[in-house]
């Protein structure tokens, strides 16, 4: 069935995903319907946007494209006051209290006993210090004048950071292990880079970590090939026309940007995106458009934990590569596939491990 939408035709379909993840389904739909189409998620209509010009426009016009209502519905039932679910001035208040910590990711590596220092290096300490002294007085103020977090806001933030902080990096590491088991030559290159120092199994200082550029390329390729988040939502605050596709959108419409599709679209890459090839992120192999590779989203609502996530990922991956080698457990158990929970994880992963 076709639906005339301004001067463009869209195929409308409501469909059950039959166990496929959104990433797998949208890849197939993009192949069939092109890089902009509508999708019904139950009663909600989503406009899936895949052209890099349109995607850039959405992320760079924060006053038109606000945090998506679908995102808010997804997490809002359990943790309505967590940063991902709030907008406007309330978001600004929460962001001003949580974001500074993530600018000091490297300091997390150093432990400290001083309260001032702990406020800078412990998210929990920093959040607890932001608890409102007089909640009743704060409730009466208009949002712009409020300071600190109420008890229920603090609880929701802690819960959200506990969930997102552990689930995200562990999913990404599962994909790392899966890809390593399938690509022994990549593992050998990481090990060769680690061996390039005096002490192969020695401590990982920040300088040493920074010098591991091939490992950075592998981490990027893991996040590109198998992103743990399939996409991001934005809701329009006013009518707007997308510049690349020319599609007219209206206030209240919900757009969905598929991180996975952008990372897999051959138009966005000079080297075949269907191949797992970390070297694409070394000199000259970058995506053809800056918005083709956005594993952490983009714009004013991009992931605030991305530096921490990359840091954790790199430290754990480097440590693993110092001590063990992963081998493919065979076609019965190591078949890959995807399963969607809060993040996208490998469905069937079975590897054997040798200690180096
Ligand atoms: C590999 C690890 C991770 C990936 C791939 C990832 C990815 C994402 C993505 C795609 C978004 C949505 C961005 C958007 O709408 O533009 C997001 C949001 C968010 N992430 Fe992450 N994330 C990771 C780890 C973390 C960690 C470790 C934390 C904190 C401990 C974190 C905290 C957040 C927060 C607070 C938001 C909501 C930001 C907002 O609504 O303004 N993430 N993340």
Give the CATH level 1 class: Mainly Alpha
Within CATH, the superfamily carries the name Cytochrome P450
Overall pLDDT: 87
CATH topology-level fold name = Cytochrome p450
Low-confidence blocks of residues: 1-16
Based on the coordinates given, report the CATH architecture: Orthogonal Bundle
Total number of helices:
13
Proportion of β residues?
A: 15-25%
How much is the radius of gyration in Å? Answer: 22 Å
Structural class: alpha+beta
Ligand set = protoporphyrin IX containing FE
General description of the model:
Residues 1-16 have low confidence and may be disordered. The protein has one domain: Cytochrome p450 (Orthogonal Bundle), CATH 1.10.630.10. It has helices at residues 22-33, 52-60, 69-76, 88-102, 115-121, 123-129, 135-140, 151-182, 184-195, 206-211, 213-225, 259-264, 306-323, and strands at residues 2-5, 8-11, 36-41, 44-49, 65-67, 231-236, 240-241, 248-249, 254-258, 324-328, 336-340, 344-348, 351-355. The chain is an alpha+beta fold. The protein has 13 helices and 13 strands. The longest helix has 32 residues, at 151-182. Protoporphyrin IX containing FE (HEM) binds next to helix 8 and helix 13. Belongs to the cytochrome P450 family. InterPro entries: Cyt_P450 (IPR001128), Cyt_P450_CS (IPR017972), Cyt_P450_E_grp-I (IPR002401), Cyt_P450_sf (IPR036396), Cytochrome_P450_monoxygenase (IPR050121). Heme binds at residue 303. Keywords: Heme, Iron, Metal-binding, Monooxygenase, Oxidoreductase.
């Amino acid at each position: 069935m076709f639906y005339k939408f301004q001067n463009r035709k869209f195929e409308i379909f409501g469909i059950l995903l039959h166990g496929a993840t959104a990433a797998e389904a949208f890849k197939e739909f993009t192949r069939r319907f092109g890089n902009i189409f509508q999708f019904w998620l139950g009663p909600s209509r989503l406009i899936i946007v895949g052209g890099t010009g349109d995607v850039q426009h959405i992320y760079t016009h924060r006053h038109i494209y606000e945090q998506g209502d679908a995102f808010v519905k997804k997490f809002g039932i359990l943790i309505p006051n967590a940063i991902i679910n709030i907008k406007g001035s309330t978001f600004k208040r929460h962001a001003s209290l949580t974001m500074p910590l993530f600018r000091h990711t490297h300091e997390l590596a150093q432990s400290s006993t001083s309260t001032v220092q702990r406020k800078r290096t412990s998210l929990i300490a920093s959040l607890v210090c932001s608890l409102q002294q007089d909640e009743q007085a704060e409730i009466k103020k208009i949002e712009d004048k409020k300071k600190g977090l109420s008890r229920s806001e603090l609880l929701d933030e802690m819960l959200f950071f506990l969930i997102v902080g552990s689930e995200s990096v562990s999913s990404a590491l599962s994909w790392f292990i899966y890809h390593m088991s399938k690509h022994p030559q990549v593992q050998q290159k990481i090990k060769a880079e680690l061996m390039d120092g005096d002490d192969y199994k020695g401590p990982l200082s920040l300088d040493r970590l920074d010098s591991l550029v091939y490992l950075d390329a592998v981490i990027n390729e893991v996040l590109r090939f198998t992103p743990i988040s399939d996409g991001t939502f934005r809701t329009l605050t006013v009518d707007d026309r997308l510049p690349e596709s020319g599609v007219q959108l209206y206030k209240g419409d919900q757009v969905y940007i598929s991180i996975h599709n952008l990372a897999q679209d051959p138009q966005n890459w000079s080297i075949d995106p269907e191949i797992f090839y970390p070297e694409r992120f070394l000199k000259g192999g970058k995506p053809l458009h800056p918005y083709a590779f956005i594993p952490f989203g983009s714009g004013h609502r991009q992931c605030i934990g991305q530096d921490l996530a990359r840091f954790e990922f790199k430290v754990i991956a480097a440590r693993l590569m110092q001590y063990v080698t992963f081998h493919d457990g065979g076609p019965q158990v190591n078949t890959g596939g995807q399963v969607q929970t809060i993040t996208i994880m490998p469905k069937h992963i079975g590897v054997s491990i040798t200690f180096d």
